[in-house]
Amino acid sequence: MIAESYSLFKKDFHSELRTRYAINSLAMFIIVAISVILFSIGNETITESLTAGLFWVVIFFTAMSGLSRAFVSEEERGTTLTLQLIASPTTVFSGKLIFNLILVFCMNLVIALLYSALFERFVVQNFALFVLTFVLGNIGLAVASTIMAAIIAKAGAKGTLYPVLSFPILLPLILTCVQLTLFSVDGTSFEESKFELAIVVGYDVIMMTASYMLFDFIWKD
Amino acid sequence: MSSYLIQSQNLSKLFGRRLIFKDINFNWIEKGIFGISGPNGSGKSTLVKIVAGLIASSSGKILHKNSGGEIIPEKLHNHIGFVSPYLVLYEEFSAWENLKIFAQIRGVTFNEERILFYLKQFLLDTRKDDLVKTYSSGMKQRLKFIFALMHSPEVLIFDEPTSNLDEEGKKVVYDIIREEGKSRIVVIASNEMKDLELCNEVLLLEKFK
Questions:
Q1: What average pLDDT score do residues A63-70 get?
Q2: A212 interfaces chain B, CB cutoff of 8 Å
Q3: What range defines the domain where residue B46 resides?
Q4: CA–CA gap between residue B60 and residue B12 (Å, rounded)
Q5: A130-177: per-residue pLDDT in tens?
């Protein structure tokens, strides 16, 4: 099953390289969102908590602009039936999840690098905590975005529905990640961040389990 | 070929309150060409999609059994080859790339010799490296037959198999249907008399309203 999922990921990767379905919209959104924030701040000095909040705001909206493509592109091109005929639901979900995971990690790495370079108050004191938050947050974001993309792919107003439906699902993750990012910026120790870390780990495990259990019903009409 | 059985037990389908068909029962065993016919909107495509496990029935069920054991829905796609006008292949890839990708995702060996044989048979060998988006609708339809045959499934389901095909293409498809029907279950959903003449049995859907 792992080899088949990897093959599906490879198919999506090559398809993305040829069609630029998601990459272009993600890159444009990152540039536009960070530029708008920089212009609106001007010469003001913003607090650390606001910086951490804005960091995850950019991540959330960028994810909403591009991650639905995993399933929406199949539906729009009419290839969903083809995929149903060549792979089991578990293979399809795993393949799409690998693609979204890699996309989320690359996208958020670019956001983090741009943020560090452009926002002077975004100085990470506890680097290990930031990396852990980044990794766990990205996993949760990718899993939730993938299953939500599968749900909205068959709907009419996909563009509107995706952020609207994803917002309540992602809210606990985003809020906790904002808190953990703030901790890593102000140098809070691992010991004091244990509770928030446990929430994010719990979120990831629950989302992953629920997604694999639900996908079968979502995938077949 | 192993003994394969498709059994329909009181199969019914409703879309909302609209009844498409009800209480369909049949046993398709091991090999043969089985037709499904009926006027437009009678549910031919719906029935073949249910048989292929792509959509669920409203009541009743379809059983796929191979050598006595029931095939679980998760694995059913490995036993089915499907062709229809509404099936879309990846247009950003060439025919060769499409078939290679399908073999990899299915987890089966990509038998180059066999694929080249089919490409030649369907008159696509000279265009195998061209992107599918440059193909005519008839060429795409022929490629779908290779997609259906390449993993040697026990069941071949052809929904309107000759749509978009020219006379030459139709001849190749009829030859394939006759040949494959000798060793496996071939299901044809069509209104074309020529398609239905190939069948050993024909299910008339207007009888199941």
A1: 85
A2: no
A3: 4-208
A4: 6
A5: 999 999 999 999 999 999 999 998 887 777 888 888 999 999 999 999
Under an 8 A CB cutoff, do B104 and A14 touch?
no
**Residue owning tokens 């191979």:** B66
Residue written as tokens 């909205």?
Answer: A152
Interchain CB distance below 8 Å, B54 and A89? no
User: How much is the ipTM here?
Assistant: 0.90
Enumerate residues 6+ apart whose C-beta is below 8 A from A124.
A116, A130, A184, A185
Taking the CA of residue A68 and the nearest CA in chain B, the distance in Å comes to 19
> A81, B54: Cβ pair inside 8 Å?
yes
d(Cα B130, Cα A16) in Å, to the nearest integer?
A: 18
Confidence of residue A5 (pLDDT cuts 50, 70, 90): very high
Predicted pLDDT of residue A107: 92
> For chains A and B, what is the number of CB pairs under 8 angstroms?
70
List the domain range (segments joined by +) for residue A8: 2-219
Q: How many domains does chain B divide into? A: 1
- CATH number of the domain encompassing residue B109: 3.40.50.300
pLDDT < 70 stretches in chain B: 1-2
Which residues, listed in sequence order, are joined to residue B204 by a DSSP beta bridge? B37
Q: Which of residues 77-106 of A touch B (CB under 8 A)?
A: 77-79, 81-82, 84-91, 95
